[in-house]
Structure prediction request, 992 residues.
Amino acid sequence: MSLASEEPHATRDSDLGDEELRARLRKTWGTNGGLIGFLSTVDHKVIGIRYAVTSFAFLLAGGVLALIMRLQLARPDNHLVGAELYNQLFTMHGTTMMFLFGVPVGEAFAIYLVPLMVGTRNIAFPRLNAFSYYVYLFGGLMLWGGFAFSIRPDVGWFSYVPLANLDFTPGKGPDYWAQMITFTEVAALAVSVEIVVTVLKQRAPGMTLDRIPLFVWTMLVHSFIIIFAMPAVMLASSMLIMDRLVTTQFFNADAGGDPLLWQHLFWFFGHPEVYIIFLPGTAFVSAIVATFSRRPVFGYLPMVLSLIAIGFLSFGLWVHHMFVTGLPQVGAAFFTASSMAIAIPNGVQIFCWIATLWDGKPVLKTPLIFVLGFFFIFVTGGLSGVMLASVPIDTQVHDTYFVVAHFHYVLIGGTLFPLVGAVYYWFPKLTGRLMDERLGKWQFALAFIGFNIAFFPMHMLGLLGMPRRVYTYPAEIGWGGLNLLASAGALLFFASFLLMAYNLLVSARKGALAGDNPWDADTLEWATTSPPQPQNFDRIPCLTSGSPLWSRDDDQPVVSGLKVDERELVVTSITEARPDIREESPAPSIWPFVAALATAAAFIGSIYTPWAITWGSPVVALALVAWFWPKTSEENA
Amino acid sequence: MKFWSVHKMQNFEAGDCPGHPPWHSGRVDAAKQKNAANKKEGEKRRDVEPWLAQDPGVASETHRFASLAPDEHNNIERHHTVPHALLHLLSHAAERARTLSAGPISIAVGSAALSGCAGVQSALDPRGEQAHTLAVLFWTFTAVLALVWFLTMAGLIFALAHRRNRRGEPAQPRAAVKRPMLIAFCVMLASSTIILSGLAVLSFGAQKAIFGSGAGAALTISVIGHQWWWQVRYEGDGGFETANEIRIPAGSPVDIKLTTADVIHSFWIPSLAGKLDLIPGKSNELRIQASKPGVYRGQCAEFCGQQHAHMAIFVVALEPREFERWRAGQAAPVKPTAHLGRQGVFTLALLENAQ
Ligand code: HEM
Ligand SMILES: [Cu+2]
Ligand SMILES: [Cu+2]
Prediction:
C-alpha cells in the first residue's frame, strides 16, 4: 500500500552519514549472487558491460571471417575457400558487423554511461533493458549456431530479392538472417526507448537542456533514429519471411510484387543505420576531445543543431544506394543534392572538434591519439562519400571495391577508431585501473598503418573494375598485386586487436590504479568511484553549470530526501530538469530472462512453422504477466 | 582540363594476339540456354559444361584463356598516364614478386597473364564517350576533395602543434569564444556550401550529358541476364543471338536493353560506360559507345548467387564495315569449326577454376 511509503520510519539519505549511507544504498541497489541473481540483474552497468563484451566477441568473430576472405583474395584464382563458402563468409561478416557488433556496441556504451552522465541511479525501464540484452544475445547465438550447423545465409547483408526468395535460395539461411534482424531490432528499439526516457526524465536537477553533455545529446539523437528507422527493416524482413514461409508475393514481380520495394524499405532503414553506427563514434569523439583539450567542445549549439540535422537528413538519402536501378533521373538527382547536404552538418562537427583542439591545450594520451586517427580516416571516407553521392560517378563505382573501401573508411574510421579510444578512456571507470599507454600507442601504430594498407588499395581496385562480392578473380586482369597488399594490411590491422585484447587482460589485473577521475574530465560519471557503486551516486548531484567537475565548486549541492531502503530515483522536468517526483525503480527479476527465452523460442520456431507464433504468444504473455505483477505491500516494507 | 591523356590504342583485331581463336559468336540454341537456368546448385556446373563446350560462341570467356601471348611491354605502354600507370605498375611489381617465387612455369604464365588481350576493364581507362565524361568528372571531384582533405588535415596538425599541454594545466570550464574562431567558422560553412553546390552542379551536368535522352541509337541490342551468363539478342529481321559477347560497330552509339530471366544482375563495361541493373519485371536501357575497335571486358556487378564472380562479358567493337559483314554472316546457320576441341579445353579449365 502506498501508505507504507509515507511511514515516518522510512530512512532517508539526509538522516545518514556518508559511510552508512553508502553501505545501505549498496544493499538496496546491489545484484544478488548465484545464477538466479546473475540472470535477474537490472543494474545498467552490469548489463552495459555484458552488451559490450558480447559485441566485442562478435567483432572478433566477424574479423576472423574477414581475414579468411582476405586470405582467399590475396592471390588470383585462389582455392582456399570456394564460391559457396566465400558467399557465406561475406554475408556473415557484414551481418555480424552491422547488426551484432555495430548497433549493439553503441547501445552498450549508452546503457553504461548515459545514466551516469545524467546523474541518476539506473536506466529507465531496467527490466526491459535486461530483456533486450537476452534477446540480442539469443539472436546472435541463433545466427552463429546456424552457421556452425551449416545453416548459412549467403545472399549478402542486404539480402536482395529475388535472389533471397525461396526459388533461388532454398535452404533456411535467409530465414535465419531475417529472423536475426527481428531479434536485434527488438533489442535496439527497447534500448532506444530507455535512453530517450532516461535522458528526458531522469537528469540530475539543474541539468537543463543546454547543460546536457554532448555525448548524451548524441545518444539521444541516435535513439530517435533507431526508433524511426528500425520499423522499416522489421517490416521488410517480416515480409521476406512471409514470402518464403507462407508464399505471400510481396517481392515477386511475376505475381505483381516488386523487387525494388525491398530495396526501398531496406535502405530507408539502411542509410540511417549507417548513422546509427556512426553517431556513437561522434559521441566518443566529443567526450575525448573535450577532456584532452582541457576545454569544453567549441560551439555547443552548432554541435547540437548539426546532430539534429543529421538525424533528420539521414532519412532523406536512401535512394543513393539505388542509383543504378534505373530510377528516373530527376528523382535520382534530388538524392544527389540531399546526400551532399549531409556533408555540411558533418563538416560543422569536424570543424568544431578541430577548433576545440586549436583553442585548447591538447594532451596526447592514447584516447586522443585514436581520435586523431579518426579524423584522418573518417574525413577520407566522408569525402569519398561525396563522390558516391554523384549519380554519374556512382554508376562507375557502385558495387565495386571502391565502395567497400569507402564504407570501411567510414565504419572503421568513424566508429572503430573512436571506439578503441573510448575503451582506453572509460576502462579506468569500469575497472578502477588504467590501460597501458605504451601498448596503446603501439596498437594505434599497427591499427592505423594496417588499416590504410588494407583499405586504401581497394579504392584503386574498384576503379580498375573489380566488383565487390567476388570470391576470386583471374590472374590476367592484374588485380593481384593490390589485393595482396590489402590482405597484408588486414593481417596487421587484425594483429592490433590482439594487442588490445592482451592489454585489456593484463591491465584489468595489473594496471595502475586510476582513482575516480584519472583524466580530470568534466562529466558526472567521473564524480563517482571507479568502478561505480551499484547506486552510482551516494547523493544525487545538482548542477549549477554545464561543467560540473571543472567549475571546482567545493560545495556542490546535492539532492536530499530520497529513501535509502527502496530504489528511489529523482524524476525531473524535460527542459529545465526541475525535480518533479520521486519514483521507484524496478527491482531485479528473473522474468525478463524467461520472457526473452520464450520470445526467442517463438521467433526461432516461426522459421519452421507459422504456428510457433500462435503457441509462443501465450507463453510470452505469461512471462510478461509475472514480470509486471504488482508488488504487495509486504514486499514493499 | 584533362588529368590523363588518351592512350595509344592497341588494335584488338582478332588476329592480333597470337594464339587467339577467331571470334565465334554463333547462334545460341534456345534449348541449350535453358540448361543454364537450371536451379539446383550442384547440378548447375555440370549442366553448363556440355553446352558451353559444344558451342564456341557461348564460351567467349575463353578470351581470357586465349591470351597467353607474352605482350607485356605493350601492356605497360598502354598506360602513359600517371595515375593509371602507377596503379598498374604497383600491381605489376607485386604480381611479379609472387610469380617469381612460384617457379619458372608460373613466370611464363604470370607474365603473359597481363596481356592486353584479356580486354580492357577499368573506369580509369575510358575508351568511349560516356566513360570519358565519367572519368573527367571523377578526377575533378578527386582533385577538389583532395584539396579539402589537405586543408582539413593541415588545420588539425596546426591545432595540435601550436599549443601542446605538457604540464597538466587545469582545464578552462568557460573558454571564451574568440572572434577569429567565429570568423573561421563562418568561412568554413560558406566555403563548404559553395564547394558542395559546385560539385553538385558538375554532377548534374554530367548526368544530363550521359543520360539526357537524345535520339535513339541506330542499333539496339537486348541483353538478358541469367545465372550466370549473358544472353545477347540482335533484334530485327535476320535477328540472332550470342552469349557473353556483344559485338558492336566502333564509333557509333548502341543502346543496350537490359532485362533479366531470374535475379538482379548489373551490366557494367567500365571502359565504356557506367553500370545499370537488370531487374525482374523492369526493362532498363543503357547507351554505350566505343570510340575505337577493341575488346572491352566487363562483369556482373550485382551479387547474383554462387558463380557471380564468373559472370563476365566482352564487348567487341569492330570497324563498322567489318561489323556489318559479321552481322550478315550471322543470319546463316553456324557451322562447326576447327576450334571446337580447343575451346572445349579452355572451358574445362574455366570450370575447374570456378570450383
Ligand atoms: C578486420 C577488419 C576488416 C576487414 C579485413 C574487412 C574486410 C572485408 C571484406 C574482405 C569484405 C568483403 C568484400 C566483398 O567481397 O564484397 C567486407 C565486407 C563488409 N564489411 Fe568488412 N572488414 C573489416 C571490418 C569491418 C567492420 C568493423 C565493419 C562494420 C562495422 C565491416 C562491415 C562490412 C560490411 C557491411 C561488408 C559488406 C558485406 C556484404 O557485402 O554483404 N567490416 N569486409
Ligand atoms: Cu546510404
Ligand atoms: Cu552477378
In short: Residues 1-117, 336-355 of chain B have pLDDT under 50 and may be disordered. The radius of gyration of chain B is 25 Å. The longest strand of chain B covers residues 219-226. The longest helix of chain B spans residues 129-161.
